[in-house]
Amino acid sequence: MKYYKLHLIRHGLTQGNLDGLYVGSATDLPLCAEGRAQLKTLRKDFSYPRVDTVFVSPLLRAKETAEILFPEAKHTYEITNLKEMNFGKFEGKPVTELVKDPEFAAWMDPTCKTVPEGAEDRVAFYKRSGEVLMQMFEFMMKTGTTEAACVTHGGVLMNMLAQHAIPQHKPEDWMADPGCGYTVQCDTAMWMRDKIVEAVDVLPYGYLDNDPDAPEA
User: Fold this and answer.
1) Sequence-ordered list of residues with C-beta below 8 angstroms from that of 89, at least 6 positions apart, any chain
2) Which residues fall within 8 angstroms of residue 41, CB to CB, at 6 or more apart?
3) Is residue 109 part of a domain?
4) pLDDT tens across 82-124, in order?
C-alpha cells in the first residue's frame, strides 16, 4: 500500500504574536528576530523531515518560516487558501481589549452566524481549510510526490485536522506551537472514499516526546 505523507507546520513568531495582537490574513507581518532565532534553535535541537516540495501560505510569516526550515526544497507552491482567516474590524487589535468587546465575545461563540465588518465568514473559512488539505494530497497523488511539507497558520491547521484527521480531536486540541505541527498520511482509498488522513507524528521530531498533554498521533 502506497502512502502519501504531508508535514503540516505552523509559522514562526511575529512581533504581533509577542504583542498579543489578533493577527489574521489582513496583516502581512514578517517573522520577528525572536521568531527567526526560535526556528533556528528548533532546527538545531530537533529534527525536521527533508522534502523537495513545500506548500506555503502567501503571507510573509509563512514563507519566511518555510525558507528557514526547508532551505533545500526544490519546489515551493504558494496556495492562497492556506492563508489565515481575515478578522475584519478586529484585525491587529490587542486581545486584552477584544475580550472586553461584547461583539467580539459573540463572534467567538461557534454558533454565531453574524460576520463582523470586513471579516471572513467562519463557515467559509472552515470549509476552505478542510478542502485545501485534500487538494494538496490530490496534487501529490497526481504528480507522484510521496512526501511534502506545508507551512500555514494556526487556525488553518486546527480546522484541517479537526475535519479530516484521525484520531479525532476538537480544533483547539490541534493547536501547535510556532514552528511545530503534525505529520499526516493517507493512501488513495482514504482520500477518495473517506476523505480522512491519519496523524502519525508530532513535528519537529522529538519536540513533544515528554509532553503528556500533546494530542496523540
Assistant:
1) 116, 117, 118, 119
2) none
3) no
4) 999 999 999 999 999 999 999 998 888 878 888 989 999 989 9
